[in-house]
């Protein structure tokens, strides 16, 4: 048995943050019904990296496994009536409409909680449900720029550098996932549903609990160095260094030990807690001159033998083939009806008694419309009429 068996989620979200949060619930066994327009959710038509797939692009595939698709026109009275019927027995309703849209559609918390007081309603937004930015587009890169984090790393005067992941989307997804689980726990204790609000700006800001506290409590300015130091609040050496055949990372090494390993007297007189901050540029430059002379494998072996923290800089091909990744079973493979055998990131949480599993791949548009409608008591004749009228789409 999976941990969220018999929990029904209505996923009315689009793009990444909402669908990713709902997918995590599905991975733990929830019955996730993806309620999408009859033309298909936006992400079906926006292929990340140009990876279009066969019938489902890879971007959509990656965010919508373990879901069933109900394709329906929510702007029609008949379509809205179907959704309200589903709400009666649902456990979680998740949406990331722009503020005000849920009210216009008549699927806001006040409306749905009146139908089902036990409902956990997760509302996701870019900047918050109200306030001066409430209608601004909540897009990952825009929020990364606002977060302040881009100016915590890299060289002074160099352009700010975005993260190599859709970082804000992912953090927001996990925040919503956490909120949904906490609200479920509260409901188990009290029987009460509730509204759970998550926004991208707060999610990426509170993720920086330590960094921002150093600024607000410790009064330490966020000051980049001339060299591309990896974080303004960590002493040198700390960054990415070129080697003879690639790149590697080096973090907070003992300067005395580093000097011994590199056979360089420059480091001998330095004090880590003083010079590690005040001479960041000089330390970085000196380390750089050494590391470029030998290959990455040499330096990793040398530094690890001296208990100096270091690591490789991977591309995706290296990551997927890493021995620890293979040992952990980090990636999973399954057969998809239209996309064939696919290999994708798996489950970050392991449960000893209730393991996550992939029971279905990302659905085709409206693949499960007929099944879902039958489950809420719609007759075959009613279902046929809804499909014929275009209110509901059933994949053929």
Give the helices and strands as they follow along the chain.
EHEHEHEHHEHHEHHEEHHHHEHHEEHHE
| Secondary structure: helix percent | 25-40%
Strand order in the largest sheet: 6-5-4-1-2-3-12
Q: Quick one: biggest sheet?
A: 7 strands, mixed
Q: Estimate what percentage of residues fall within beta strands.
A: 5-15%
Number of helices: 17
Q: Say what the CATH topology of the largest domain is.
A: Rossmann fold
- Which class do the helix and strand fractions yield? alpha/beta
Write down the Rg: 25 Å
3D architecture notes:
The chain has 396 residues and is α/β, with parallel strands linked by helices. Strand 10 (331-336) and strand 11 (340-345) form a beta hairpin. The longest helix is centred in the middle third of the chain and has 24 residues, at 167-190. Helices cover 39% and strands 15% of the residues. Helix 1 (17-27) packs across helix 7 and helix 6 crosses helix 8. The chain has helices at 17-27, 58-63, 77-87, 101-105, 109-115, 140-147, 167-190, 200-207, 209-216, 255-262, 272-278, 280-291, 296-305, 316-320, 323-328, 369-375, 380-389; strands spanning 8-11, 31-36, 67-72, 92-95, 120-125, 194-199, 238-242, 247-251, 310-312, 331-336, 340-345, 392-393. The radius of gyration is 25 Å and the shape is elongated. The mean pLDDT is 95. The chain has two domains: 8-207 and 326-393, Crotonobetainyl-coa:carnitine coa-transferase, domain 1 (Rossmann fold, 3-Layer(aba) Sandwich), CATH 3.40.50; 238-242 and 247-312, no CATH class. Strands 6-5-4-1-2-3-12 form a seven-stranded mixed beta sheet, sandwiched between helices. A three-stranded antiparallel beta sheet has the order 7-8-9, covered by helices on one side. The chain starts with 7 loop residues before the first strand and ends with a strand. It contains 17 helices and twelve strands. It comes from Sphingomonas bisphenolicum. It holds the Pfam family CoA_transf_3.
């Amino acid at each position: 048995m999976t941990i969220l068996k018999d929990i029904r989620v209505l996923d009315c979200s689009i793009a990444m943050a909402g669908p990713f949060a709902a997918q995590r619930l599905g991975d733990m066994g929830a019955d996730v019904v993806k309620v999408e327009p009859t033309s298909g959710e936006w992400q079906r038509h926006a292929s990340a990296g140009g990876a279009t797939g066969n019938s489902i692009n890879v971007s959509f595939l990656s965010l919508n496994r373990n879901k069933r698709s109900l394709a329906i026109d929510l702007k029609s009275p008949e379509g809205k009536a179907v959704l309200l019927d589903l709400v009666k027995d649902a456990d979680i309703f998740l949406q990331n409409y722009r503020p005000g849209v849920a009210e216009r559609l008549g699927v806001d918390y006040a409306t749905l909680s009146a139908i089902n007081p036990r409902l956990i309603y997760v509302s996701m937004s870019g900047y918050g449900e109200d306030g001066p930015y409430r209608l601004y587009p909540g897009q990952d890169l825009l929020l990364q720029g606002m977060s302040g984090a881009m100016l915590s790393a890299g060289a002074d005067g160099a352009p700010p550098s975005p993260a190599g992941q859709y970082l804000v989307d992912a953090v927001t997804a996990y925040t919503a996932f956490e909120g949904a689980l906490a609200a479920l726990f509260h409901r188990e204790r009290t029987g009460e549903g509730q509204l759970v609000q998550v926004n991208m700006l707060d999610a990426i800001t509170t993720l920086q609990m330590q960094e921002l506290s150093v600024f607000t409590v410790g009064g330490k300015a966020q000051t980049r160095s001339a060299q591309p130091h990896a974080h303004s609040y960590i002493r040198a050496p700390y960054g990415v260094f070129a080697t003879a055949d690639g790149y590697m990372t080096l973090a907070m090494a003992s300067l005395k030990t580093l000097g011994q390993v590199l056979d360089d007297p420059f480091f001998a007189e330095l004090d880590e807690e003083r010079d590690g901050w005040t001479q960041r540029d000089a330390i970085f430059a000196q380390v750089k001159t050494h590391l470029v002379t030998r290959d990455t494998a040499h330096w990793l072996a040398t530094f690890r033998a001296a208990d100096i923290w270091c690591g490789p800089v991977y591309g995706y091909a290296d990551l997927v083939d890493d021995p620890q990744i293979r040992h952990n079973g980090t990636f999973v493979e399954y057969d998809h009806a239209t996309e064939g055998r696919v290999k994708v990131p798996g489950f970050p949480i392991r449960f000893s008694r209730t393991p996550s599993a992939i029971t279905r791949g990302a659905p085709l548009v409206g693949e499960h419309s007929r099944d879902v409608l039958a489950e809420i008591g719609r007759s075959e004749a009613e279902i046929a009429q809804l499909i014929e009228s275009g209110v509901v789409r059933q994949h053929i």
